[in-house]
């Protein structure tokens, strides 16, 4: 058994309909693949119709499941309302919303135009708000219960991070929304949780966060105590569990899956891991010699 294997029982999501924003590429595609393998119908959406159509046909052929490719720019509420309608018309109802779509790039903040900052906030925070509000209102109006919203954030939602300030600001808002609605909308039969992934290589993220030879200069695996990046299947395993009925008592939680990366950055003395054993012998002797002084 290893971490790249599939974790859930075969029919764990049978009969569920799941909407995955940004489901045509990267982590959204990995989650979608596993949801289909576990018996769910999946609606994938993004701005690029050709991309999601291609992914939908590929994953239907690979898994035998049903995929609706529904173009939608999450920044626009009218498009999100159309997504709700189309998903319901195709599959009867929607059980689970995964707010995965995101936009990001590295930049010193003073170089950003106001519109550049807004663009990231609009995709990540406003997009998550638009989808959550549209699906949430629909479920409340229809008196449908046992619904799940899963938001994909990052660990810098609570630590903050230089050079990705609009993304950090937006993800922090998404986390606050997750925890707030976990309480407020529990009475309508909805659960809200979040996942904070560490580095999981995808083209979308790597091209924008590690352009050119930054990939070689900043090996993200080195920042992780477990000394590796994440595998898509281990994220898909966690995601499938959190949207399934097996996690029915988990509500308002953010689960970090980063090999210990953010805590390594946080601990004041964590950098001492580079000290070799012989030097520790010497340092211990020096510290012990101070006894009583
Ligand atoms: C400064 C930039 C810029 C850059 C764009 N802009 N790129 N400013 N540096 N590198 C400015 C533009 O000049 C414009 O401002 C404004 O931002 C909007 O740009 P557009 O290209 O018109 O926007 P749009 O076509 O909507 O594209 C959105 C995007 C793009 C975010 C800029 O990168 C995108 O489509 N991304 C989607 C996928 C993605 O980002 N995936 C990565 C998620 S990774 P002006 O003022 O000129 O009009 C992630 C991981 C986090 O979140 C954690 C990892 C460990
Ligand atoms: P990705 O492949 O670039 O995924 C982002 C997706 O969002 C794309 O499919 C994109 O499709 C879609 N999208 C962007 N703007 C949109 C909009 N306005 N409306 C609808 N869809 C839009 O990157 P990824 O690495 O898989 O990221 C997935 C999620 O994981 C994101 O929430 C990201 O913040 C999070 N995350 C990733 C990492 C990592 O290491 N990869 C780490 C922490 C968190 P279109 O361009 O076709 O619209």
Question: What's the arrangement of secondary structure elements?
Answer:
Blueprint: E1 17-21, H1 26-37, E2 41-45, H2 49-63, E3 67-69, H3 77-91, E4 96-99, H4 114-141, E5 147-152, H5 156-159, H6 165-184, E6 190-197, H7 203-209, H8 214-217, H9 232-243, E7 254-257, H10 261-266, H11 277-288
Parallel strand pairs: 1-2, 1-4, 2-3, 4-5, 5-6, 6-7
Helix pairs in contact: 1-2, 1-9, 3-4, 4-6
Descriptive account of the structure:
This protein is an alpha/beta fold and 293 residues long. It contains eleven helices and seven strands. Strands 3-2-1-4-5-6-7 form a seven-stranded parallel beta sheet, sandwiched between helices. Strand 1, helix 1 and strand 2 form a beta-alpha-beta unit. Helix 3 packs parallel to helix 4 and helix 4 runs parallel beside helix 6. The radius of gyration is 21 Å and the shape is globular. Bound molecules: hexanoyl-coenzyme A and NADP nicotinamide-adenine-dinucleotide phosphate (NAP). Hexanoyl-coenzyme A (HXC) binds next to helix 4 and helix 7.
């Amino acid at each position: 058994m290893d971490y790249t294997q599939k974790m859930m029982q075969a029919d764990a999501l049978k009969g569920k309909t799941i909407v995955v924003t940004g489901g045509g590429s990267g982590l959204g595609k990995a989650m979608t693949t596993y949801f289909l393998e576990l018996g769910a119908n999946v609606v994938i959406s993004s701005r690029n119709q050709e991309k999601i159509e291609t992914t939908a046909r590929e994953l239907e052929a690979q898994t035998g499941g049903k995929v609706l490719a529904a173009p939608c720019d999450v920044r626009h509420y009218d498009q999100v309302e159309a997504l709700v309608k189309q998903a319901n018309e195709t599959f009867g109802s929607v059980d689970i919303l995964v707010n995965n779509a995101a936009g990001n790039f590295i930049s010193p903040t003073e170089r950003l135009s106001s519109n550049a900052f807004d663009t990231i906030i609009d995709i990540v925070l406003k997009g998550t708000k638009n989808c959550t509000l549209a699906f949430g209102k629909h479920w409340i109006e229809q008196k449908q219960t046992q619904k799940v919203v899963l938001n994909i954030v990052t660990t810098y939602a609570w630590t903050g991070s230089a050079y990705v300030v609009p993304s950090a600001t937006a993800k922090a808002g998404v986390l606050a929304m997750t925890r707030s609605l976990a309480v407020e909308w529990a009475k309508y039969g909805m659960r809200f949780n979040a996942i904070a992934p560490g580095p999981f290589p995808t083209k979308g993220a790597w091209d924008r966060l590690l352009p050119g030879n930054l990939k070689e200069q900043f090996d993200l695996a080195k920042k992780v105590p477990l000394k590796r990046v994440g595998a898509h299947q281990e994220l898909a395993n966690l995601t499938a569990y959190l949207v399934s009925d097996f996690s029915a008592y988990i509500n308002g939680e953010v689960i970090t899956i980063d090999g210990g990366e953010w805590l390594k950055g946080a601990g004041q003395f964590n950098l001492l891991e580079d000290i070799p054993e012989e030097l520790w012998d010497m340092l211990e002797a020096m510290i012990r010699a101070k006894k009583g002084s």
